[in-house]
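Input set for joint prediction.
Command: fold jointly, output tokens.
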Amino acid sequence: DVKVTQSSRYLVKRTGEKVFLECVQDMDHENMFWYRQDPGLGLRLIYFSYDVKMKEKGDIPEGYSVSREKKERFSLILESASTNQTSMYLCASSKGDGEAFFGQGTRLTVV
Amino acid sequence: AQSVTQPDIHITVSEGASLELRCNYSYGATPYLFWYVQSPGQGLQLLLKYFSGDTLVQGIKGFEAEFKRSQSSFNLRKPSVHWSDAAEYFCAVGPTHSGNTGKLIFGQGTTLQVKP
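tokens >
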């Protein structure tokens, strides 16, 4: 069974902390994505990666960075967490035909 | 600008009734089209997809969707809703050109509530 695994389901962090969200896929997909999901706004793309060490900004990259050192792993980094980054974060991977496979999501609360 | 619109934020139907969720898109060319479902606290699962060919596509869980090029729509339907269909539904579009990264644009989502 294909799988995208996010390291945490729930996280609570303090304002100003550096936060790492990890995502691993076992499908050998080239493309990986980080989305943010907020009520009424759907999914908004933060960053995506189409190859190891390659990344591109999505629609809302401010306050975030990413790292992809290995094909199967894509990390989202909040350099200095703020309360407006409280949200659900979804990782996905795709082989390029557009069909994306999603992880279970990480619900992050910044206090 | 490329966009996806799901006009209905929230829909309530009775169990056993038929369902139609609307999706309209704005795109430079005919894109790939998708419907995803998200159960509470879960990630998104693909229901169905349209790449080309027959404009009526069948998906999992008894869902189907019809692509109408003239209306830039891709509406999701189910003849008889089950209580387990209560979830949030997302329409998405993606580029069809070769070498695309699979980057999708999502609608705002429609929350489906099913009455017993």
